[in-house]
């Protein structure tokens, strides 16, 4: 698979990730605390793909690296919120496992891209 094809597939994957995070966030408790975490995870989870898309349209290698690092950071933040949701038992473990797995995989991909630059 060449770089363009990889980028296109990763854009799709990160967009799907954002959609699933939004769906998860809408299932969180309607308490004040639930709304705070809902907002945080929705923002970080959708930012992963938004910044990756921006990276692919960057104007320089430095700009590309910066956007990739933001995607990496947002994936890490999303993982944090998923851990909080898990620790609070706000979602069933079997529901969270695929989210956590995908977050870790995306984090590994962005870390790998950053390390190659």
Largest sheet, strands/sense/barrel: none
Shape: elongated
CATH-derived architecture: Up-down Bundle
Count of beta strands: 0
Count of discrete structural domains: 1
Question: What's the total helix number?
Answer: 4
SSE arrangement, N to C = HHHH
Classification by helices and strands: mainly alpha
Helix content: over 70%
Radius of gyration: 15 Å
Distance between the termini: 19 Å
- Please, what is the CATH homologous superfamily? 23S rRNA-intervening sequence
Q: What is the CATH class designation?
A: Mainly Alpha
Strand content: under 5%
Examine the coordinates and then state which fold CATH places here, giving the name of the CATH topology.
de novo design (two linked rop proteins)
Unreliable runs: none
Q: Write down the overall mean pLDDT.
A: 95
Describe what you observe in this structure:
The protein has 117 residues and is an all-alpha fold. The protein has one domain: 23S rRNA-intervening sequence (de novo design (two linked rop proteins), Up-down Bundle). It is 85% helix and 0% strand. It has helices spanning 3-26, 32-56, 61-87, 93-116.
Helices and strands in order:
Elements: H1 3-26, H2 32-56, H3 61-87, H4 93-116
How would you briefly describe this protein structure?
With 117 residues, the chain is mainly α. 85% of the residues lie in helices and 0% in strands. The two termini are 19 Å apart.
